[in-house]
Q: What sequence folds into this?
């Protein structure tokens, strides 16, 4: 498939890198000549300098032969126009990053009255809204640092850090007493090494452990690894932008939990807007990086501190202060992927990257219809996906032990009807099974021979 990516920022780079692993033909367009030069060297892909909403530039990118265009620049206007032009050339699939998909008329192009189809966009995605939904998952599952649900919540994967005082430290996996219905599928060591474990591998304090299994047993599994159960009542959000606002609306709409939500925003006019739009959230104006303000407003009593100001430096300072003040859980927005090692060095492990979340959603859209979801892990060393096994697949009817799956591919969970199965070598794969697969990037291209 020939795919044109408009925008060479973090989202565009992440997409290009992952699509290249999938043996797709990629062409990148970016208006910054310096970015074009760097991307050409780093990714070893053709990169064109120019405005992605310009007809001549798109023709240079061979738009006439493209099957997909993905527009992920910082400009909603450029993204929408690029998709509209692509459709006139017969491009089958178009994806646009649009920050305010519910009000496209707010940008310079007057799109009021036009539907998404009339705009020529097959998928509209908002990084900020996607990130807010990811943060909400972690508030509901506070002891995990990554959470994803599958098949309407029947199964899930999560990542948990192993506590120093956990009884499982230095024990082999086969000797662990994990609750029935889940399995360890990946371990990221504190030195950065990542492995798909065997039963003989052991866990060490600080390891990031990935589990897949039945949703109802994950809380117990998390407690077993993490040694604590965190109760969340008070949520403080720093930053009233799209992430903070969307998160507050999600928490307000929850009828099962009565969270006390406080949102702190620096801009006075934005505070007025938030007070009009939010009904139960306490909205205040203030500087979330001022330690005296933390004490004055009793932020130290928060159960969760969400730093989502849009500025990595402010988010970093806020997270460090929150940890010093004893906040139980911090969730920190990282807008630039290269900042991630800084957070890790400061032991601020629960971060959310809107660009990575956006890339996951778009990558799923580039795949065949039987792939229902896809998640890039934060460490970018593996991914999980949910797919429906078609009747014509080569592995249907075979035991897993006889499927000859390559090393680096693991079927972690099978959802068959209402049953969630943790498979072993004797488990047979059946047509219409929902498979939750844990996969290393280097074996992704081999999946087609087994699952299509």
A:
């Amino acid at each position: 498939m020939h795919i044109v990516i408009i925008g060479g920022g973090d989202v565009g780079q992440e997409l290009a890198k992952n699509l290249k692993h999938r043996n797709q033909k990629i062409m990148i367009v970016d208006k910054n000549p310096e970015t074009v030069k760097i991307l050409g060297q780093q990714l070893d892909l053709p990169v064109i300098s120019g405005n992605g909403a310009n007809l001549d530039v798109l023709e240079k990118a061979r738009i006439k032969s493209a099957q997909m265009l993905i527009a992920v620049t910082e400009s909603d206007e450029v993204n929408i126009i690029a998709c509209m032009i692509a459709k006139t050339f017969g491009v089958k699939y178009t994806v646009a990053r649009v920050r305010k998909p519910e009000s496209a008329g707010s940008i310079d192009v007057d799109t009021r009255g036009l539907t998404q189809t009339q705009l020529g966009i097959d998928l509209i995605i908002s990084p900020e809204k996607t990130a807010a939904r990811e943060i909400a998952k972690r508030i509901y599952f506070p002891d995990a640092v990554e959470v994803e649900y599958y098949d309407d919540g029947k199964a899930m994967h999560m990542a948990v850090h192993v506590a120093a005082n956990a009884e499982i430290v230095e024990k082999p996996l086969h000797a662990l007493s994990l609750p029935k219905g889940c399995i360890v599928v990946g371990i990221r060591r504190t030195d950065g090494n990542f492995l798909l474990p065997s039963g003989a591998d052991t866990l060490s304090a600080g390891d990031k452990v990935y589990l897949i299994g039945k949703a109802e047993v994950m809380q117990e599994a998390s407690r077993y690894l993490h040694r604590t159960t965190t109760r969340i009542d008070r949520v403080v959000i720093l930053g009233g932008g799209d992430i903070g606002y969307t998160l507050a609306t999600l928490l307000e709409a929850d009828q099962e939990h009565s969270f006390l939500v406080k949102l702190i925003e620096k801009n006075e006019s934005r505070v007025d807007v938030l007070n009009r739009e939010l009904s139960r959230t306490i909205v205040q104006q203030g500087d979330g990086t001022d330690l005296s303000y933390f004490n004055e407003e009793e932020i130290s009593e928060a159960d969760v501190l969400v730093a989502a100001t849009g500025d990595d430096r402010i988010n970093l300072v806020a997270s460090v202060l929150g940890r010093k003040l004893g906040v139980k859980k911090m969730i920190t927005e990282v807008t630039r992927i290269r900042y991630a090692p800084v957070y890790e060095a400061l032991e601020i492990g629960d971060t959310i990257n809107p660009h990575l979340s956006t890339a996951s959603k778009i990558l799923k859209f580039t795949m065949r219809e039987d792939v229902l979801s896809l998640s890039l892990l934060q460490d970018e060393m593996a991914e999980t996906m949910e797919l429906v096994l078609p009747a014509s697949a080569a592995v249907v009817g075979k035991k897993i032990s006889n499927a000859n799956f390559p090393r680096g591919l693991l079927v972690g969970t099978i959802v068959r009807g209402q049953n969630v199965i943790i498979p072993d070598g004797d488990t047979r794969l059946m047509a219409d099974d929902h498979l939750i697969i844990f996969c290393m990037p280097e074996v992704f291209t081999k999946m087609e021979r087994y699952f299509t």
